[in-house]
Each structure stands twice: as C-alpha cells, then as structure tokens.
Specification:
The protein is α/β, with parallel strands linked by helices. The protein is built from 5 helices and 5 strands. It has helices at about 15-25, 50-65, 80-95, 110-115, 130-150, and strands at about 1-10, 35-40, 70-80, 100-105, 120. Strand 1, helix 1 (about 15-25) and strand 2 form a beta-alpha-beta unit. Helix 1 (about 15-25) packs parallel to helix 5 (about 130-150) and helix 3 (about 80-95) crosses helix 5 (about 130-150).
C-alpha cells in the first residue's frame, strides 16, 4: 500500500524540514511513502478564509484519485494512541490501495474536502502549528511502522 502525506505550503523551519526528511526516509524502509506539497496561495489579502479554503480544496482534489483512502488531520477527528494508530495502519495496509493523509492550510478544509474524506484523525486536543503537525505526523507514521514490525523504538 502506498502512503502519501499532503500538506499546503512549504515547511519553513529548517529543523522541522530536517526532521520530516529524516522520518520520511525511515518510513520508506517499511512502506512506499511520499510527501506532496500543494503550493501556498499567492495574493491572499483579497481572499476571505472561505475563498482560501475553496482554492486550496480545488488544488487538493486534483491530486486525489477516486480509489484513495483520504484521511484529514483535523481537530475534530478521532484521537488514537500510537499503538492504536499502528493497528489502524496495519488494517489499512490490507484494505486500501493508497492511503493519503492531508494536513490542511491555516483555516482548515473546504466543505468539498470534508465530503471527499473517508476519515478524520486528530493528533491531540491541543493546537499545534501546521508546520509542527507535519513533523509530528511523520514521526507517528514511523512509530506505527516500528510497532507493526515489533521493533524497540516505541516503549509502553
């Protein structure tokens, strides 16, 4: 099963970039994994939050295939412990052709994207910057892979 992580806009912080690249490389030893970046919108001063979400949603929809299992990282999504995420991921490996995690822009997702999504997950009830969520999500996917393989990275 191929797994993708899609997010909007480039990661700015060089430390986050290094961490994301490190975990992405580690993940690729376990499963086919790719990060895709939707370019940030230009000239957003004249756009409302809803207009920005709509434009980002249009770009995102072009990247998705009908058979993709789309998971939005959303504050209202289901929270899983790391071992539960590993079990969930293992289940998806048996049932999905391509698993796509999506981290939205600063205002979230358009209604069209919420309709397209198959699931919503939340990393925490706390709020993290979108830049930080990218790093946390790649680490959690890596952690899930090591749990599935029974490797000693995760400690109960």
């Amino acid at each position: 099963m191929k797994t993708e992580l899609i997010f909007i806009g480039k990661t700015q912080n060089k430390h986050f970039i290094a961490g994301i690249e490190d975990y992405a490389e580690r993940i690729s030893h376990y499963i086919p994994f790719e990060i895709k970046v939707i370019p940030e919108l230009k000239n957003t001063k004249n756009l409302s939050e809803n207009q920005q979400k709509e434009k980002e949603g249009e770009m995102l929809m072009k990247m998705l295939q009908p058979s993709d299992w789309v998971v939005l990282m959303d504050e209202h999504g289901k929270e899983l412990r790391s071992v539960e995420l590993a079990s969930w991921l293992q289940n998806k490996q048996n049932t999905a052709r391509k698993l796509v995690f999506v981290i939205g822009g600063p205002y979230g997702f358009s209604p069209e994207i919420y309709q397209r999504a198959d699931e919503k997950l939340s990393l925490s009830r706390m709020t993290f910057s979108h830049q930080m969520v990218r790093l946390i999500m790649t680490e959690q996917i890596y952690r899930a892979c090591t749990i599935i393989k029974g490797e000693p990275y995760h400690h109960e």
